[in-house]
Amino acid sequence: MPTYEYVCSKCDHAMEAFHSMKDEPLKKCPSCKKAGLKRQVGGGAGLIFKGTGFYITDYKKKSGTNPEAGAGKSSAKASETKPAASAAK
User: Fold this and answer.
1) Contact (CB, 8 A) for 37 and 7
2) Which helix (H) or strand (E) holds 76?
3) I want to staple 31 with a disulfide (CB 3.0 to 4.6 A). Which of 12, 13, 43, 68 is the partner?
């Protein structure tokens, strides 16, 4: 649910309200008790991660390495060693 910014045209009281997009915009000012609230157009704050487990380096590409190519090389080496190990027995 988004946070909306409101300003009262009667008393210039500014406030924020957290409600659903489906809800009607607020009209009555909590400060002056008159119907003068107008919802402001906001730019938004962007995407914000809060809590543990979100790090800037989690999805950062390592320079000079391709993670898919590295996985292909290790699986190719594993497949080469399996037949050799079974042939030795």
Assistant:
1) yes
2) helix 67-88
3) 13
